[in-house]
Each structure stands twice: as structure tokens, then as C-alpha cells.
Sequence to fold (154 residues):
Amino acid sequence: MTIARFEVRWQHGVWMAMLGGFLFWGTFGALVILVLTNGFLTWYVSRSIIKPLGLLENAARKVGQGDLTPSVLPREGDEFGSVADVFDEMRIRLKDSLEAQSALEEDRRTWVASVSHDIRRQSRAQRSAPCGKRKRSRRNAVCRRTQYPYCFQG
Fold:
């Protein structure tokens, strides 16, 4: 009876080639996985930053153009959410300020119209009054010639 003999001999070149191939392909595979993971994470993080920033930019452009209606702002619990809250508060205060300014402007116009009406009315009354008549005051009679010199130009 013969027993099969199995011998393993160390062949330096073969084992080194196998080990070198494993190291090369293992390193290459790890780098590919690392680059793909890095690309995905970069895309995800940049999207989570650029999207709320774009919404804030659009809202700022609308406010710059005079549109103070409520706009869609990011309502997340992070820094963008707090900036959006402050921006919305600023928009509301600006809207209130513009409404108050408009009301004051309307009051000013009404006052100017009223004063100009009173001035015109007094001017007409003075022009129509007879210039030679004397007006009684508390102390003494005042001549209309001294009070209204434009009546007597001649």
C-alpha cells in the first residue's frame, strides 16, 4: 500500500507574487471604496448646505425687489433654521415699518393740503377786505395800511 504524499514547498517567488497581488488589489479596492464614499458624503453635505442657502438667497432677492409677502424658508433646527427665523422677523419688521411710513406720509399730505387750504382762504379774505377800514385791537386801532401793505401800491 502506498500512501500519497503531499508536500508543500515554499516557493518564494510564487508566494510573493500572490501576496503582492493581494496587496495591490486590496489597496486599490479600498481606495475605490474610499473615493466613492467620499463623493457620496460630499454630495450629501453640499446639498444639505446649498439647498437652504438657495432658499435664503431667493427670499433675500424678493425682499430686495420689494416683495414682503411670506416666503418659503428652511425651518430646520440647525443654523439655517435660526438664520431663517431672524430673516423672517426682519421681513415682518420691515413690512411694519413701511406701513407706518406710508401712514405718516399720508398724514403729512393731508396736513399740507389742510394748511395750504387755510393759507389760500386767508389770502382771499385779506385781498377782498376793504383796505381803508380800520380794525380795532385790544390796545388801539391798527390801520390796515400797516398790516397789509400790499393793498396800497400806488
